[in-house]
Specification:
Layout: H1 10-34, H2 41-48, H3 52-59, H4 62-84, H5 87-91, H6 96-113, H7 115-124, H8 129-149, H9 160-181, H10 193-209
Helix pairs in contact: 1-2, 2-3, 3-4, 4-6, 4-8, 6-9, 6-10, 8-9, 9-10
Length: 215
């Protein structure tokens, strides 16, 4: 008769969880400070106060560490947005325009709050296939969540699903472009985050609730 594996004591499980969090936080800080080049196994180990060997045992190599950090970061990002953009919460807002503004504002606010680390992963994704694939997965999931949160809105387009899809693409692409390129690439007029957020809200409200074709 095969014996069941002995479960790890709760104290050891909690210690392992805290160690994992320490490694993630160390990785976040190094990427924000110096980009991909600053993220080395040795640097993360030193920042987290852990042995290099423990990182190799957990992640295998630097790429495994990078992808684990990206996954944890993007999952936390989606969770933050989801708290504000849940279908249950937005359905309580009787005015469709207010619900749309809240959904757009949730994305803009969370992305702004994590601008530095998002810039690292967005730019890295242009040349690192695994990072790009993870970023694509999360952005597609975000698209679905956006559409689900606003599915109750009376979208004034022949194809509401396509309109919601485009609205998310507009918001995501505009904010991602701002994060990677700054506010002065196309114009010499300043566009603070607050103004960008407000203009995006107005544009998406008009697009989703206006008449098809702008008539």
């Amino acid at each position: 008769m095969t014996k069941s594996p002995t479960p790890r004591p709760a104290a050891l499980r909690e210690s392992s969880r805290r160690s994992q969090q320490d490694l993630m936080q160390a990785g976040y800080a190094l990427l924000e400070e110096g980009g991909e080049d600053a993220l080395t196994v040795a640097a993360v180990a030193e920042r987290a106060g852990m042995a290099v060997g423990s990182i190799y045992r957990r992640f295998g190599d630097k790429e495994g560490l990078l992808l684990a950090i990206q996954h944890a970061f993007t999952e936390n990002l989606q969770a933050e947005i989801g708290q504000r953009m849940s279908p249950e919460r937005l359905r309580l807002l009787r005015d469709p325009a207010v619900a749309i503004a809240e959904a757009v504002g949730a994305i803009a606010d969370v992305f702004q709050a994590h601008e530095s680390l998002l810039r690292v992963f967005l730019l890295l994704g242009t040349r690192h296939e695994a990072v790009r694939a993870e970023g694509t997965r999360v952005s597609v999931e975000g698209n679905h969540n956006f559409a689900e949160a606003l599915r109750h809105i009376p979208v004034a387009h022949p194809d509401p699903e396509a309109a919601l899809d485009f609205a998310f693409r507009l918001v995501y692409a505009t904010i991602a472009h701002r994060i990677t390129q700054g506010e002065f690439l196309e114009s010499d007029r300043p566009l603070p985050w607050g103004d960008l957020r407000s203009h995006l809200q107005t544009a998406v409200i008009s697009y989703l609730l206006g008449t098809p074709g702008g008539r």
